[in-house]
Specification:
The structure is a homodimer of 175-residue chains.
Chain A (H helix, E strand, L loop, with lengths): L1 H8 L1 E4 L8 E2 L13 E6 L6 H10 L7 H9 L3 E9 L2 E12 L4 E9 L8 H15 L4 E6 L4 H6 L2 E3 L5 E5 L3
Parallel strand pairs in A: 6-7
Antiparallel strand pairs in A: 1-3, 2-3, 3-4, 4-5, 5-6
GO cellular component, one term (chains A, B): cytoplasm
Pfam family, one (chains A, B): Acetyltransf_1
Protein name (chains A, B): GNAT family N-acetyltransferase
C-alpha cells in the first residue's frame, strides 16, 4: 500500500529491543525465534486514516469534530506526529499530536492523545519527546501549549512552565 | 508602486469621517477643502517593509530578531494584520499583529504592537477587533494568545479569558 511505503520513509522506530516500555513480549516466547514482538513506531506522515484517528479520540472521550475540518487542520499543521503499535505487518494508531507554527519562532502543540490502553507506560512522554525533538530540529525556539488542569503536572515534568514571567494563556470568547 | 496597488485591494479604511479616534483634523483647517486629513487603514497585505516593521518593534522596546526569520514567520502566518496612518499619499506603519493557525480550529495571535505615539487612543482595540473579525470570517472557533502581565486586562476587555476552566498556557524550556 502507498501508505506504508511513504509512512516508513518518514517514520522512526524506537527501542526495537532493549527498552521494556516500548516492547511487549507478553505475546511471544522469547525462546522462539518466530515470536511476534510489538514495537512502537513514531511517524510524521500526514496520511493518517481519519476514522482511525477519530476512534483514538473517541477512546479518550473527546467530542467528535467534523472530519472535513480535521483533515484541513492536519494539512495546515506544521508538525503531525503519530505513534503506532506495530505487530508483524499490522499497525495500530495509539497516539497523536500536532503543532501549528510560523516556521520560525513559535510552535503551539495541540491534540495530544494516547490511547487509554497504552497510558501510564511512558508513551505520552515518548510521544512528546519526539514532538519536541522534531520542533527543535526546525529551529523553533518557543514551544507552547494549552494544558488541561489534569495534565499540567505531566507537562511540567517534560520541562514546560505554566505562566512563565506572568505570561497568561488567554482564550477569546465573543462578548 | 506595486505595493500600493496590491495593498489597497486587501485593505480596509475605517472611520473615514465620523469616528474621532481614527481621524486627526488637527493638521488641516476643516473650512479648507484642501485640508489634509489623516485616516487609519487596516490591511492583511503581507508585503510589509521589514525595516519599517523593525522600527515599529524597536519603538516599543522589543529585542531585535533576524529579519530572515521575521520574513519566514510572516510568510507562514495564517493572518498578518497591519495598521497604517495614511496622510495624503503617505502611509506610516503604526500597528501590527499576526496569527498562526491550523486553518480549521485554532489560531494563536502573536506580536501585537501599536506605536507608542498612537497608544491610548483605542487603536490597539481597533487592531484586535480587525484581527478577530478576520479570524472569525475564516471560521476559526478557538482564538488564543499569550499575554504579558501588563496587557492581560486589555485583552480581558476584548473578551479574552485567562486560564478558562483551568487550562494553563505553558512554555517549553529544555531541561
Amino acid at each position: 500500500m502507498g501508505f506504508w511505503k511513504t509512512w516508513f520513509s518518514s517514520s522512526e522506530s524506537v527501542a526495537t529491543n532493549k527498552t521494556t516500555a516500548f516492547e511487549d513480549h507478553t505475546r511471544g516466547d522469547k525462546g522462539n525465534s518466530n515470536a511476534v514482538s510489538d514495537s512502537i513506531v513514531f511517524s510524521t506522515e500526514r496520511d493518517i486514516d481519519l476514522y482511525e484517528l477519530e476512534e483514538l479520540c473517541d477512546a479518550v472521550g473527546w467530542s467528535r469534530r467534523p472530519l472535513r475540518k480535521v483533515k484541513k487542520a492536519i494539512e495546515h499543521s506544521f508538525l503531525v506526529a503519530s505513534m503506532w503499535q506495530v505487530r508483524g505487518n499490522k499497525r495500530r494508531l495509539i497516539g497523536f499530536a500536532r503543532a501549528t507554527s510560523d516556521h520560525a519562532f513559535n510552535a503551539t502543540i495541540w491534540d495530544v492523545v494516547v490511547h487509554p490502553d497504552f497510558q501510564s507506560q511512558g508513551l505520552g512522554k515518548a510521544l512528546m519527546k519526539y514532538v519536541l525533538k522534531k520542533l527543535r530540529s526546525e529551529e523553533i525556539s518557543n514551544v507552547t501549549l494549552f494544558a488541561d488542569p489534569h495534565v499540567v503536572d505531566f507537562y511540567r515534568t517534560m520541562g514546560f512552565i505554566p505562566d512563565p514571567e506572568g505570561i497568561k494563556g488567554m482564550f477569546w470568547y465573543p462578548q
